[in-house]
Amino acid sequence: MKRLLILGTGGTIACAETENGLAPLVPVNELLKGTKLPAEIHSEQLFNLDSTNMTPRHWEKLARHIHERYDEFDGFVVTHGTDTMAYAAAALSCLIQNSRKPIAFTGSMKPMSAENSDATKNLLDAVRFASDERAFGVRLVFSGTIYDGKHVSKSDSSVSTPFPFSETEGGTSENLDTFSVQEDTQKHGGETRFYERLSDDVFHVKLIPGQRLYIPEGIRAVILESYGAGGVPDYLLGDVTKLANTGVYVIIATQCTYGGTRLYEYEVGRYAAKVCPLLETGKATVEYAVARAQWALAYSENYGQFKKLFCLEDCEGRL
């Protein structure tokens, strides 16, 4: 029987009704009461927060805790609020790379105590996944589906399946009842690597037509969520060039769910890339691009190092 550690961080799954609305009050060990789980279960409470209040500091602590307990358990389940779960899974995908053991995020859209709650099913599914001999890596398990932690976004705030459009091109998802894991999917090295830091010096801007750029001091990388295949509007080219000339790394993303960036396809992208250094996110989610930039900044000292870490070595500027 597999030995699993369930780590509670709060979220809707742990919420109870208060006079001010739902708040995470229920400890993770209470969530497990009366539930027959197919593994030897241990649980610990790291936080009890609405995921709106989660920050990179919490994900750093979560990653460190998993690292410290990594040899003691066969897998890990993290209960987390859905609002920032995609950011958390992306962050852990950067902080714990090539994990040969499963690290499964889950949560719910209704509290465990609510009528017709999805909490018990999602928790059971996450445990089932983490107990499977084939399971590995950072995953998000929700509504009977397993998502790669690097390729997931929350796209609905009201239904029991908040990740219906989570699978970006290049991402993976599997039905829990039929999933299969290819043995050699970790093409960038089989050794599990642990990291401890994420930088706070990443700024994300979603462009709207006519908008100018106002970037806070101290920012070292800016993700510009542009339109379509990606590009820099003519009226922003001066601002972007100034940023690049002052040492800020500029990354182009897209507001489109599918298709990704293709910076060199249109003049507005190709010309911008000629006058200043630009990276692009390709088919990565914004959540993963943010996490990847936070991680790359924490472990680089110059643009060349950042580019190598932010972009996989064979991606030619794309994630």
Quick summary:
This protein has 319 residues and is an alpha/beta fold. The chain has helices at 28-31, 56-69, 85-95, 119-131, 237-245, 267-275, 286-298, 303-310, and strands spanning 3-10, 15-18, 21-24, 40-49, 75-79, 96-97, 102-106, 137-142, 145-148, 173-175, 193-194, 202-206, 221-226, 249-254, 278-280.
Description:
The chain has 319 residues and is an alpha/beta fold. It has 8 helices and 15 strands. A 7-stranded mixed β-sheet has the order 4-1-5-7-8-9-10, with helices on both faces. A 4-stranded parallel β-sheet has the order 12-13-14-15, sandwiched between helices. The chain has a two-stranded antiparallel ribbon with strand order 2-3. Strand 14, helix 6 (267-275) and strand 15 form a beta-alpha-beta unit. The longest helix is centred in the N-terminal third of the chain and has 14 residues, at 56-69. The two termini are 37 Å apart. Residues 165-171, 180-188 and 313-319 have low confidence and may be disordered.
